[in-house]
Specification:
Number of helices: 22
Number of strands: 12
Helix content: 40-55%
Radius of gyration: 26 Å
Strand content: 5-15%
Structural class: alpha+beta
Shape: globular
Distance between the termini: 86 Å
Strand order of the largest sheet: 1-2-8-5-3
């Protein structure tokens, strides 16, 4: 027995010694050898201090980013969570293009992938390397222009349903205050309602399933997704326990809290209901094949399943049913939350800038069909959207909002190997003897993180002009020359990212945004209600000032247009 205790003591002592040695390396030796230490960067006022709060808080990040560029250049060293964690934050278009282009070198950190995988499975948001490449190859046909056009009627009909729901709420005098009666409308949480509508859109467009979220919130599958996304993600406190659990996920398994119980319960429902939907779709596709025809389903799940069994796809490139479910979860998360926030922020900005709202409404009403919207056929709806999509004021408003308030404030990548990052202009690197030297590139060590400041690129006043922080849709009629050098999948902004991991659902998102705006702005006026601010809670969300604990909200006065009939 004594021998066993002695062995355990020796093992424990060895483990402690190894741990202490590793900490000594991290805290003392590595900072002196880290190549990122050669980059200029802001000072740290405390040993456990960091710069993350300054660069992640949208209420102050524009000022912080601009000061970094002014004081240190476009490639800056900042402190991460721990004292030994030096990160790169880059506002250099050449450097960032290199990072986003080489997605196999710069991957999501394992902590981010673990969190995403835990929530929605290993879909395209969490997958890396060959798995991501295989999933994206199978999913790409589902997002073809032809398939996206087939989904236009779904967004139109959902927008109409939201219009009718708002009209019903506003017409009920029991729910309207004196202030609302004076303005002729009703104060509604636009963020809440748009979120319900986009859930309905992605349910129908994603896998031909009706959540019926606009009418009520009782659907089992809808509640599973809603609870998982809102409770387990949006309401995270970000305290010491959350930080510990991020680096040691086993803690949540040993000591599950309310969030973990919600996620587990949601997973049970999703796997049962959505899993059944996948099997039903597969059966319909197989029955159509046996009958010598092609299954006519136009939803993303049908397109995904058909692409996965295409004859030109090698068997080893196909993905499993589990992968398909994970990607449906991913589409639902990315397709509902980001689009709903964009529509919310657009309507909020239009409420604040009534002159822009009036101009846009005039443009939309000018192309509104004479016939009742409810009477339009699917072909007529598609023709209507083709006109809506080309409207210049609408296009400028959408682009400007996506630039000014990108749903994803920033992201992070980690280098999987040593790399050399090029720069657009020489960067000053520290040298021996307190001297500096200029170089056209710098070394990025394996394991170091890159902070990708999406908002900062979109708001850079050296690029977008002195009014780069302001809402000015007209800027898109005469952009500065410097904008052309900016990376980005969409109009030289980073909102939809860039490179191999850019947003695969961008076209669908734009269709959804523009169709919703057409329907809502031709039937309602919007005016400010409570003061609203921004907070970066996974995504950039609106919150009523001083009421952050009540969750994401965007209350606005919604006023039916006096000269608009029931159609």
């Amino acid at each position: 027995m004594s021998g066993l205790l002695l062995a355990l003591s020796s093992l424990l002592a060895a483990a402690v010694a190894v741990g202490c040695s590793y900490l000594f390396y991290l805290i003392v030796l590595w900072p002196q050898r880290n190549p990122l230490r050669r980059l200029p960067g802001p000072p740290i006022r405390a040993w456990f201090g960091n710069h993350l709060g300054a660069v992640l808080d949208p209420s102050r990040s524009p000022r912080v980013h601009e000061k970094f560029v002014k004081d240190y250049g476009r490639n800056v060293r900042i402190r991460g969570i721990f004292p030994w964690e030096e990160r790169l934050i880059t506002l250099d278009p050449v450097s960032l293009t290199h990072i986003l282009k080489h997605s196999t070198i710069y991957e999501k950190p394992w902590q981010s992938r673990a969190l995403i995988s835990y929530m929605i499975g290993v879909g395209m948001l969490a997958a890396e390397g060959q798995m991501h490449k295989r999933q994206r190859r199978v999913a790409t046909p589902a997002f073809s222009i032809q398939n996206m056009r087939a989904l236009i009627p779904v967004t139109f009909k959902t927008g109409m349903e939201l219009r009718d729901r708002w009209m019903t709420l506003i017409s009920d005098p029991r729910d309207i205050s004196e202030k609302e009666m004076a303005c002729g409308g009703m104060k509604l949480d636009v963020c809440h309602w748009i979120s319900r509508a986009t859930f309905d859109v992605i349910g129908l467009a994603g896998f031909d399933y009706s959540f019926n979220a606009i009418q009520d919130q009782s659907n089992e599958l809808f509640m599973a997704y809603k609870d998982m996304f809102e409770i387990a993600i949006s309401q995270q406190k970000g305290g010491l326990w959350d930080l510990a659990a991020m680096y040691f996920p086993i803690l949540n398994r040993i000591f599950p809290g309310e969030a973990q119980r919600v996620v587990a319960k949601s997973h049970e429902v999703i796997n049962r209901v959505a899993g059944r939907l996948i099997q039903e779709k597969k059966r319909k596709i197989e029955e159509a094949e046996k009958a010598g025809s092609v299954y006519a389903g136009k939803d993303l799940l049908s397109a995904l399943l058909k692409a996965n069994i295409a004859v030109d796809l090698p068997p080893d490139q196909r993905i499993s049913d589990e992968d398909i479910l994970n990607n449906i979860n991913t589409f639902l998360f990315a397709g509902s939350d980001t689009s709903s926030l964009t529509v919310t922020w657009i309507i909020y900005l239009l409420a604040r800038y009534s002159d822009v709202q009036d101009r846009l409404r005039t443009e939309l009403l000018a192309i509104k069909p004479v016939a009742p919207l409810e009477s339009l056929t699917q072909d007529e709806i598609a023709s209507l959207y083709a006109v809506v999509a080309e409207l210049p004021v609408l296009e400028n408003v959408v682009k400007e909002t996506l630039r000014l308030i990108p749903p994803v404030h920033s992201s992070i990548r980690v280098a999987t190997q040593d790399d050399v990052i090029p720069t657009s202009t020489p960067v000053e690197l520290s040298a021996q003897g307190g001297k500096t030297e200029k170089a056209n590139s710098f070394v990025m060590p394996k394991g170091a993180s890159v902070h990708v400041p999406i908002e900062a690129f979109n708001l850079d006043r050296e690029v977008w002009g002195p009014d780069g922080w302001a809402f000015n849709p007209d800027r898109w009629d005469n952009l500065p020359e410097a904008v052309k050098a900016q990376p980005g999948l969409y109009n030289n902004i980073l909102t939809f990212s860039a490179g191999p991991r850019s947003c695969i659902g961008m076209k669908f998102s734009i269709i959804e945004i523009k169709m919703f705006l057409f329907i809502l702005l031709t039937h309602f006026k919007f005016a400010p209600a409570d003061p609203v601010g921004k907070a970066n809670v996974v995504l950039t969300r609106p919150y009523v000032v001083d009421k952050h604990k009540e969750g994401s909200q965007c209350p606005l006065f919604v006023i039916p247009l006096a000269d608009v009939s029931s159609t």
